[in-house]
Design brief:
Blueprint (H helix, E strand, L loop, with lengths): L1 E8 L5 E2 L8 H18 L3 E7 L2 H10 L4 E4 L4 E3 L3 E3 L2 E6 L3 E6 L4 H6 L13 E7 L3 E9 L17 H41 L2 E7 L23 H8 L4 E2 H12 L14 E3 L2 E3 L2 E5 L12 E9 L1 H4 L3 H4 L7 E8 L2
Parallel strand pairs: 1-3, 2-6, 10-11
Antiparallel strand pairs: 1-17, 3-7, 4-7, 5-6, 8-9, 9-10, 11-15, 12-15, 13-14, 16-17
């Protein structure tokens, strides 16, 4: 399974964001070839995509690589007939997709959280119910949470001083950045509530993947990995809660690898970043899994046997090959049926 930020996937002659940002025929061919090469090399069975503008082109591309099942629930915004904004998410699968829907916001809950009545996801969340071998139905959620980009820009007044303009911009950066954090954290909360309700109703396994635009364990998104009930010593209730909690695929992989190591093996596993910005780097792309994929749970079907962070195009790019790839690593996992 993989999560793949395609980075401005828009077929020419349309433009992304600005009128002059259009791929040439050669650039588009290079981008398509890079994606196809990844799919051919790694062959994930299920892929969650982000930054999709041209859904039809993507569906055709992945079909050529053996993905007969494709889902999308939204369309980008089109301005002036050819300028595209607001890319969407999609899912491709080699296994049958039994149901597709966009996750709806619980408006009553949004009000209780102090949000507006018309609060919505910055990008629609896709839920595809896929029939997996041995396990059965699994609800696969694909997300692209709100970015850290400030939610608004200051208006520079030409009549004010230079210092005043700088101060206004700095205030907008601080306040706008926090507004984006509120949006991102609220999206995660409302999605998690929807997932819990769905889990209680259907019992389906859960898989949440995508570009979170935030490290998952910091304060904004940490609740996605809430492990237990606070201040509750009832073992039976805590076991029940585990049925509803999500696990980071990396943590499951690391736990499994450490359990398999001999006492003489002191190999240290290091999680590589999935995104680089200037001199900084971070993990922004995640795959979260329910208890069916946790080898520590007796009722689990699978275990995470490998975790692959495909990032050569970021740390050691070859222009002729990687020039039109993506600005994120492609994160994928392998699942092995438990013996």
């Amino acid at each position: 399974m993989a999560t793949f930020n395609l980075f401005n996937y828009l077929a020419p002659p349309d433009a992304f964001y600005d009128f002059d940002r259009i791929y040439s025929a050669e650039q588009w061919q290079k981008k398509e070839a890079w994606i196809a090469s990844y799919l051919c090399t790694h062959q994930p069975d299920i892929i969650g995509f982000q930054e999709v503008f041209s859904a039809d082109a993507l569906a055709a591309l992945v079909k050529q690589e053996g993905y007969e099942h494709f889902a999308v629930v939204d369309k980008p915004t089109v301005i002036d007939d050819f300028i595209y904004r607001d890319p969407v998410v999609a899912l491709a699968s080699k296994f049958p997709i039994k149901e597709v829907s966009a996750v709806a916001v619980d408006n009553e809950l949004a009000l209780q959280l102090g949000l507006t009545e018309d609060f919505n996801f910055s990008r629609k969340v896709l839920r595809s119910t896929v029939e997996l071998p041995h396990l059965g139905l699994c609800d696969c959620y694909v997300v692209h949470f709100k970015s850290k980009r400030a939610s608004w820009q200051s208006e520079v007044d030409a009549l004010t001083s230079l210092e005043g303009n700088v101060l206004n911009q700095f205030k907008a950066q601080v306040a706008g950045g926090w507004a984006s954090s509120i949006q991102r954290g609220s999206e995660a909360t409302l999605l998690m509530m929807n997932m819990l309700e769905r889990r209680a109703k259907t019992g389906n396994a859960m898989l949440l993947m995508g570009d979170f635009n935030n490290p998952v364990k910091d304060g904004i998104l940490a609740h996605l990995l809430t492990p237990s009930l606070l201040f509750n010593n009832d073992a039976a209730q805590q076991r029940l809660v585990k049925f509803y909690t999500l696990r980071d695929a990396w943590d499951l992989y690391e736990t499994n690898k450490l359990a398999q190591q001999s006492q003489e093996d002191e190999t240290v596993l290091i999680r590589r970043p999935s995104h680089y910005f200037g001199q900084s780097s971070s993990v922004l792309d995640y795959i979260l899994l329910s208890s069916e994929f946790d080898a520590q749970e007796q009722s689990s079907f699978f275990e995470v046997s490998d975790y692959i962070n495909t990032d050569k195009h970021l740390i050691n790019p070859i222009f002729d090959i990687d020039g039109e790839s993506t600005d994120h690593a492609v994160v994928s996992i392998k699942l092995a049926l438990r013996k």
